[in-house]
Structures are given as structure tokens and as C-alpha cells.
Specification:
TIM Barrel, 8-stranded parallel beta barrel, alpha/beta, about 260 residues, binds phosphoenolpyruvate
Length: about 260
């Protein structure tokens, strides 16, 4: 049985500062009554909104994160953001390896490993995103790809960091405007592979790492996804970018999960 559920969104390169602040304020207000011992909510806005967002948002209610981070603290890394700069803003989460980082900007599993270790050593929650492309799925190598991304991403990471590790399974073919959501059965199957691999990497305790599903989550599929045994949460893009809609999706999913657990 799941102890906790996770609902979050990455705002990608959408929403300016004013729009982000308005969205976060409204989401905080709408979701204020949710029991945070059981449900974790988090939002990952653009870098330019983070300073104001962290001043406005109560991170006991909504955790804030950054969409990426350099593994070095300082130096000749034009265009990159240091862990120290993100710490200065009081952020809790760093998202690493979103499919757009891997496939549009060429980030590798080796880079993920450096970033995961840097995020953890700077006391962030490291949210590592993994997922196979449509081509890899068609070749029947999805499990191998997921296993590789996990084994390389978490190489030399001590099990002591388990409480600060989250994983998001986001099949590349399921994400974004051209994405086709994974069926709940397919998502469950892959989440199980991920769970087993995390146990291989970290020992039995690895099973406690939250594994979230992302990729065209919407009000029509959120409920059947959240009741799957190995799905601990939903990482939502487009369907979360309106605070009212995201609040409704979260509440509906929680109700369904509770009914299912009863
Ligand atoms: C994403 O890009 O991580 C994502 C889950 O997007 P969407 O829900 O819009 O497919």
C-alpha cells in the first residue's frame, strides 16, 4: 500500500513571472486543505520566476523546484545555473533529465549521474526523469533503456540518500502536444521494472523511492493511473497549467485512490 501520493508539474518554458505568481498563489489557495502528510504537491517553474515564487509560496504546501542544474558550483559554464544559486532561493527540488533536456539538448546518462550527485550533496530532492523513445519501444528495448538510465543515473549514489530521491517515468512518446498517453497497464508494467531496478541498485530500501508517471496525464486517465500499484504520483504538464483544473484533477485522483484503498 502507498503511504503517500505526489502531484506535480513542470511549467517548462511557459508563463512569465506575473502569470507564474498568479498561478502558484491560486493553486496554493485551492489546495491548502489537502493533508500534506499524505499528499505532496510541487511545481517547477521557469528560473526567472523562482525568486519571487519562493518568497510567495509556503513550501509546506507546495514544494518548488528548478528544471535543471549544473553539477559544478561555479566556473566557466556560461548559461548554466549552480546548485549554490538554487540553494540561495530556498528551493527543495531539482528536476534532472527531462526528455527535452536529453533529446533536444543532448544531455547524457553520464551528465545525469553528475547532476544527481551534485543535487543530493547540496541537499535537494533529486527528481530524475527517465523514459524510452517511441523507437526504443518499437524495438522492444524499453526495459533495457529504463534500467540503463537508472543504473547510470544513480551510479555511486549512497542508499543514505534514498529519502531525497524521486523518479519520474515519462515515456518520450507520451509527452507533450504530439504525445499519446501510456495505458495504465503499460505504465504499471514499466513502473514495476523501475521499482525492481531501484531495489537492485539500492537494496530493499530502494522500493520506498517514489516513482511518478508523466506523459499526457489528463482528467480522463489520471484516476486509473493513480490506482496502479507501482505508481506513486502524477507528474503533469498541460493539464496542470490552469490552477482550477489541476486542483480538480488532484482531488479526483485522491478520491479515486481512497475508494480503491477502502
Ligand atoms: C512533461 O513534459 O513532462 C509532461 C508530462 O507533459 P504533458 O503532461 O503535457 O504530456
Amino acid at each position: 500500500m502507498k503511504k503517500k501520493l505526489y502531484f506535480g508539474s513542470n511549467l517548462k518554458m511557459y508563463k512569465n513571472v506575473a502569470q507564474t505568481i498568479e498561478y502558484l498563489g491560486r493553486l496554493q489557495e485551492l489546495t491548502a486543505d489537502l493533508d500534506r502528510d499524505v499528499f505532496t504537491t510541487f511545481i517547477i517553474p521557469s528560473y526567472t520566476s523562482l525568486d519571487r515564487a519562493s518568497g510567495l509560496i509556503d513550501q509546506n504546501l507546495i514544494l518548488l523546484g528548478a528544471q535543471n542544474m549544473c553539477w559544478e558550483e561555479q566556473g566557466q559554464f556560461t548559461g548554466e545555473i549552480s546548485p549554490l544559486m538554487l540553494r540561495e532561493l530556498g528551493l527543495k527540488i531539482v528536476e534532472l533529465g527531462h526528455s527535452e533536456r536529453r533529446h533536444v539538448f543532448g544531455e547524457t546518462n553520464e551528465m545525469m549521474n553528475l547532476k544527481v550527485k551534485a543535487a543530493l550533496s547540496h541537499d535537494f530532492i533529486a527528481l530524475l526523469c527517465i523514459g524510452e523513445t517511441g523507437e526504443e519501444k518499437d524495438f522492444g528495448v524499453s526495459d533495457e533503456v529504463l534500467r540503463t538510465q537508472l543504473i547510470m543515473g544513480f551510479r555511486d549514489v549512497s542508499p543514505a540518500y534514498i529519502p531525497k530521491i524521486w523518479v519520474a517515468y515519462e515515456p518520450v512518446w507520451a509527452i507533450g502536444v504530439n504525445g499519446k498517453p501510456a495505458s495504465s497497464a503499460y505504465a504499471q508494467e514499466k513502473h514495476h521494472v523501475i521499482r525492481e531496478t531501484l531495489k537492485e541498485i539500492f537494496g530493499e530500501e530502494g522500493a520506498s523511492i517514489p516513482v511518478l508517471y508523466g506523459g499526457s496525464v489528463n482528467p480522463g486517465n489520471a484516476n486509473e493511473l493513480i490506482v496502479q500499484e507501482d505508481i506513486d504520483g502524477l507528474f503533469v504538464g498541460r493539464s496542470a497549467w490552469d490552477a482550477e483544473n489541476f486542483n480538480a484533477l488532484i482531488r479526483d485522483a485522491i478520491r479515486t485512490w481512497r475508494e480503491n484503498e477502502a
